[in-house]
Amino acid sequence: MRPNYPLKCRVTVRKEIMEYYLAAKDKLYAYFKTIDSRFSATMDMWTSIQNKGFMCLTLH
């Protein structure tokens, strides 16, 4: 680890992640509004035997 690397407080990190998420969501919604066709989205989540989480998003 680099001792001179500035660590951010958890509140700052959460705020930055939420800002990034909201910007990406707005960008995605704007893109979907430009599409003239319809689509369907489904999502599935599960946990493997090794206790790893997975999420699948399918658009058609």
Automatic annotation (TrEMBL):
Q: Which GO cellular component does the record give, naming just one?
A: nucleus
The protein's superkingdom reads Eukaryota
The compartments listed are: Nucleus
Q: Which UniProt keywords apply?
A: Metal-binding, Nucleus, Zinc, Zinc-finger
This entry's Gene Ontology molecular function terms read: zinc ion binding
Q: Which InterPro entries match?
A: ZnF_BED_domain_contain
Principal location: nucleus
User: Which PANTHER family does this UniProt record tie to the protein?
Assistant: ZINC FINGER BED DOMAIN-CONTAINING PROTEIN 39 (PTHR46481:SF10), ZINC FINGER BED DOMAIN-CONTAINING PROTEIN 4 (PTHR46481)
**Protein name, entry field:** Uncharacterized protein
Origin organism is Panicum miliaceum (Proso millet)
